[in-house]
Amino acid sequence: MSHDPALLPNPRPAFPKHGAADWPTERWPEDAPGSDVDTEALADVRRQLIDGADPERVGETHALAIVHRGRLVFEAYGGENTADTTLISWSMAKSITHALVGVLVRDGKLDVDAPAPVEAWQGADDPRRAITTENLLRMESGLEFIEDYVDSDVSSVIDMLFGKGKADVAGYAAASPLAHEPRSYWSYSSGTSNIVARIAGDAVGGGQEGMWAFMQRELFHRIGMRSATARFDDAGTFIGSSFVFATARDFARFGLLYLREGVWEGEQLLPSGWADQARTLTRSSFDQYGAHWWLARDGSGIFNASGYNGQYIAVDPTRDLVLVRLGTTEEPKRVNVLPLLAKAVRAFPLLDG
């Protein structure tokens, strides 16, 4: 894995030590919040986001789940949603795509530091030949792509997912010209993630059936994410930018995998250091992005999978905590939701506190 000078040091607290544990592969070990948890703060968050929520201010929260010290200690659902309701990931799928790439790296089937194996870029004079899979994971490929969720006249992502690119999302994105030198410019791009998903699918082989079997065998079923489903396009590519569906409890399992450094039931499912690679700051990202995971800009060491309309899997190594929030909150209202999620996190003690 890359130790590129484009990557700068950033606050990366040590992952919490864990010994024998009740892994939630079959069922979540549940518990009440400990005596050192501010339960009044949690109750207030629940009231503002779910029980007494003002949709005009915070939108709708469908699910809120918190795992502390490996145990499910808080869970609440809005509307008719329950622990069995599967909900959309939107761009949290990008972090799941990162995990799938990690499995391929573990098995020696993919070298992220090598030029990305994209057929359309292999012309002798094509400057895109210099783009590595690592560049793609860090959103610094330099490819032209407009990530706009409102203006369909200019948006590449809307056209890719719902317009002329929807039958072959990776092909649509890979056709983008180079707008900047690789590594010189950070630009968040769902197209980039779908190129990565195509690379992963090609490494696995077997088209859609082969990739879906791989996703279940090597990730979802290994960590108990049995509710998880994924959407593929007509070309057989997993739409790794946007479309995984699962319960809040299963998304929390995924967060726990990264909190435990890619280890599950004592086995290293993701390569050693892969979770750390996810939370290593990309130089050009304005202090906010690692590798297909977002980084907190407050120095807390929290890193998170984030999706459109306010989907979050927040991983906090300083508190041994995973928080999942799923809902429908339009962009302007997310500024009202984030402080409440931060309040929920702060209700739990620091490991050295």
Question: What's this, in brief?
Answer:
The protein is an alpha+beta fold and 353 residues long. It has 11 helices and 11 strands.
Please describe the structure with a list of short key phrases separated by commas or semicolons.
353 residues; alpha+beta; Beta-lactamase; six-stranded antiparallel β-sheet; three-stranded antiparallel β-sheet; globular
Description of the structure:
The chain is of the alpha+beta class. The protein has a domain at 39-99 and 193-346: DD-peptidase/beta-lactamase superfamily (Beta-lactamase). It contains 11 helices and 11 strands. It has helices at 39-51, 55-58, 92-106, 133-137, 156-162, 169-174, 190-204, 207-220, 248-259, 274-278, 334-346, and strands at 60-68, 71-77, 87-88, 229-230, 244-246, 263-264, 267-268, 294-295, 303-307, 311-316, 321-328. The strands form 3 sheets. Strands 2-1-11-10-9-8 form a 6-stranded antiparallel beta sheet, with helices on both faces. A 3-stranded antiparallel beta sheet has the order 3-5-4. The protein has a two-stranded antiparallel sheet with strand order 6-7. A hairpin with a 3-residue loop joins strand 9 (303-307) and strand 10 (311-316). Helix 3 runs parallel beside helix 7. Mean pLDDT is 95; it is low at 1-6.
